């Protein structure tokens, strides 16, 4: 008494869990991609490749998020996918690109804002 004859979830189907592999550009693909980009888009793609930032994270990158003296670039928690801020080190190649972008940025509120067509 008080026991079920069958399990109530016996006929419930489990959700499929897709097993996607993470794909990275090969060393041969990166230069091919960059050669077909406009100069403005090339900077965006390079920053994405060097940081791993998502599109929204790059679009929201502000000048105060870039600290070239300390050699860091940060993403605010409100713009990250998991809601946690993170700070990454800036290597020489990324530092050069960020210096170029910040010099051309003027008083725009975000680093990658541009009037140039992408």
In short:
The chain has 118 residues and is of the alpha+beta class.
Describe the structure.
- The protein is 33% helix and 8% strand.
- The protein has 118 residues and is an alpha+beta fold.
- The protein has a domain at 29-105: hpI Integrase, Chain A, CATH 1.10.443.10.
- The longest helix is centred in the C-terminal third of the chain and has 14 residues, at 92-105.
Low-confidence stretches: none
CATH architecture of the domain at 29-105: Orthogonal Bundle
Q: Count of DSSP E strands? A: 3
| Gross morphology | elongated
Strand content: 5-15%
Q: Trace the largest sheet across and list its strands.
A: 1-2-3
CATH class of the domain at 29-105: Mainly Alpha
- On the 0 to 100 scale, the average pLDDT is 87
Name the helicity range: 25-40%
Please count the helical segments.
4
Gyration radius from CA atoms, angstroms:
22 Å
Main sheet record: 3 strands, antiparallel
């Amino acid at each position: 008494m008080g026991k079920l004859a069958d399990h109530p979830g016996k006929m419930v189907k489990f959700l499929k869990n897709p097993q996607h592999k993470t794909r990275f550009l090969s060393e041969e693909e990166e230069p091919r991609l960059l050669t077909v980009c406009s100069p403005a888009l090339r900077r965006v793609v390079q920053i994405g490749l060097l940081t791993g930032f998502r599109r929204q994270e790059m679009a929201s990158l502000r000048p105060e998020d870039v600290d070239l003296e300390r050699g860091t670039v940060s993403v605010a928690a409100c713009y990250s996918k998991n809601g946690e801020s993170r700070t990454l080190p800036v290597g020489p190649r990324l530092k050069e690109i960020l210096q170029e972008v910040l010099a051309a940025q003027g008083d725009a509120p975000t680093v990658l804002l541009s009037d140039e067509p992408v």
